[in-house]
Each structure stands twice: as C-alpha cells, then as structure tokens.
Design a protein that fits this description.
By secondary structure, the protein is an alpha+beta fold. The chain has two domains: 87 residues, Roll (PH-domain like), CATH 2.30.29; 78 residues, no CATH class.
Length: 179
C-alpha cells in the first residue's frame, strides 16, 4: 500500500506534536491531570517543609491548608500547561522550518520519504520506535524529540486514516520482528 500524504503543517499540528512528545516522556502515562496531581503533591511537600513552624497550630488546620494547596495547584496546573502550549505555538512555531509550509510524506514498503520544498528525507520502518495515534493525528516517533506527523485532515476519509494507521503499525511490527 503506497500512500502519499500532502498537508500544510500548522500551529494545531505543532501543539498536537508537543502533546504527543510529552506523552512519550517518563510522566506521559499519567496524563494531564495525573501530572497536575503529582505537581500538587510536590508543592504540598515543599509547603510542608518550608512552612512547618509557621502553619496554624494543630493537626486539622494544617491538614486543611495542605489540602487547599493541593486542590488549587491541581486545578491550576492544566491551565498553565494549556497556556504554555499556546504561547509556544505563537512564539516558537513560526521559527520552525516546516511552519505553515506544505509537507509531503510518501509511505511505501521501503520506508517513509518526506519532502519540504527542496529538502528531502528518508526514514526506514526500522527507525520508527513508537506509533502514537490520537483522534486527529498519527505520530511516527523516530525518537522522543523527532516525530513524523500525519494529520487526519490530510486523508480523504476516516477510513483512509485508519487504514494508514494499520499499515504503519504492520510495517513497524514487521521491522521489529525482522530485527
């Protein structure tokens, strides 16, 4: 199944790429709210360490302060993550060489060929370490820092997108088995 995908890499693709890259990290499986809770627990631990003597006397008032800090940090952290993604899309995205340019990916039995203007690249199926599929994108990860993006909008239908995802998974699985 040879498939050619042509699309314009936009800010929404960049934000999706940031999220997919974050999901491959050590805390990626926790999800947005899990990371927020972990950050909340870290902040509560720091509050406990640095304000041990200044907190209200007694167990229950101190526990209430810690619980309040945990709830506030847990609820505010995803908002900061969301705003950070948007800020990166406004500030860093225009500096990327692929920003708002037409990108062509050709997937065939030998691997993936990419073309951006006069720049061409080639990635073998053996180089793909992970496939991440979201509702709007397919990410072919070469490493945590480098991924090929295939947006759903670049294909004719949802069935074509699902077929491309199955094809990519089969090729990566076959290359892993052949290693």
């Amino acid at each position: 199944m040879d498939q050619t995908v042509i699309y314009r890499f936009g800010p929404a693709d960049y934000i999706a790429l940031i999220r997919a890259s974050r999901s491959t990290g050590p805390l990626g499986r926790l999800g947005r709210w899990g990371r927020a809770m972990l950050l909340g627990l870290l902040i509560v631990g720091l509050v406990m360490v640095f304000s041990y003597d200044s907190l209200p006397a007694g167990f229950w008032p101190g526990l209430m302060v810690y619980a309040l800090v945990l709830v506030v940090v847990t609820l505010v952290a995803p908002i900061g993550e969301y705003l950070g993604e948007r800020l990166m899309a406004v500030w860093l995205f225009p500096r990327y060489s692929v920003a708002n340019k037409e990108l062509t990916l050709a997937l065939d039995d030998d691997g993936i060929r990419s073309k951006l203007g006069e720049i061409e690249g080639r990635v073998s199926w053996r180089s793909i370490v992970r496939i991440i599929e979201t509702k709007d994108h397919l990410f072919l990860a070469v490493s945590r820092a480098e991924m090929l993006v295939v947006p759903k909008r670049a294909l004719a239908s949802a069935e074509a997108f699902a077929g491309l995802a199955r094809y990519a998974r089969a090729k990566v699985d076959a290359s892993v088995a052949g290693r």
